[in-house]
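>> received
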Amino acid sequence: MAKTSSIEKNNRRKKLAKQFGAKRTKLKAITMDQSASMEERFAAALKLAELPRNSAPNRVRNRCEFSGRPRAYYRKLKLSRIALRELGNFGQVPGMVKSSW
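>> returned
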C-alpha cells in the first residue's frame, strides 16, 4: 500500500489538471500559433507560466486504484500487477483464469 500522502497529492494534481485544462490548452495554442504576433505569443507564455505547476497533466502519476502502487500499472484496468493477480485469484476480473501447475 502506498503512502496516503502521495496518493492524495496525486489526486490534487488530477483535480488541478482538470480545472485548468481548458485554459492551458488555449494558452498553448496561442504560443504555438505562428500567425500571432510575437508580443501576443510572449504574453500567452507568461500567463501559462503563472498557472500552478501541478496543473500540468504530465505531472499526474498513474497509480493503482486498489493499492496506490505507482509501478507495474496496467492502463486498461487501472490496476497494478499485484492487485490484478490478487483480484484474478478471487475471480473478480472477468475473463482472467487462474493459472496453476
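>> The mean pLDDT is 92.
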